[in-house]
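During the reporting period the student researcher (J.K.) took over the structure-prediction task from the postdoctoral fellow and processed the backlog of single-chain submissions. One of the processed entries is reproduced below for the supervisory committee.
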Amino acid sequence: MTLAMWGHIKPFLEIAILWFAYYRVLVFFEGTRAFQVFRGIAYLLLAFIIFQLLGFNTLNWLLTKFFALSIVVFMIVFQQEIRQGLAHLGRHHIFSFGLEESTMLEVIEELTSAAFKLSRKKVGCLMALERETKLKTYIESGVAIRAKVSSELIQSIFTPQSPLHDGGIILREDQIVAASCLFPLSDNPNFSKIIGTRHRAALGITEQTDTVVIIVSEETGEISVACDGRFIPIVNRERLVRILKDILMVESKEKKTL
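J.K. obtained the following structure tokens:
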């Protein structure tokens, strides 16, 4: 390839790379307040190009100054979204459990049993499963337990008369390490007005970490799983078992392979 040919191809390659990067950013922030801002920036960039082609020097100067100031404003206003994005890039998505398959199946069975028994009684619960991202900050907000996972223990923790029933429990490998933990509430505008505090907390921690959360609604008894800032509805016991196996056991096998 000659230098002249590369000179013609290079601008198109740069544009393609920039648009791909911009598209990935839009996909990541879809459903958040930052999404509308990115779309607005795209319109301004298009207007900036048009003004340059038409030779509108005054408008070009105004937009240039605006973009210079907007970088600082953007960093301040959207610091939470930027922090989440950087944390997302740093994840390895490898489940941190170092358990044998038989032990992991026992943990899944205990969690499933607890979820459906609490569901039948319409007792709300929040069970967060730690993965690659450590949840030390949230563990410290609760009460240390450090007990082997069991359906009976989970049910007793979330009994309304229990002093630990508020907040959520955090599991690490086959242990419940803490109860009554506080999770960050999601400010996702697509969910905040239609879901309760327990579901907003589940959504919030999965937006900021790679945690998987099992939720039982106190009002309806419905079970759902939160992962990567999204809810997965659970219609029966088999579906919950299959989802937990897909997330936990597949990633555990990948970890062993690595």
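The committee noted the following: Residues 3-89 form one domain.
J.K. will present the remaining backlog at the next meeting.
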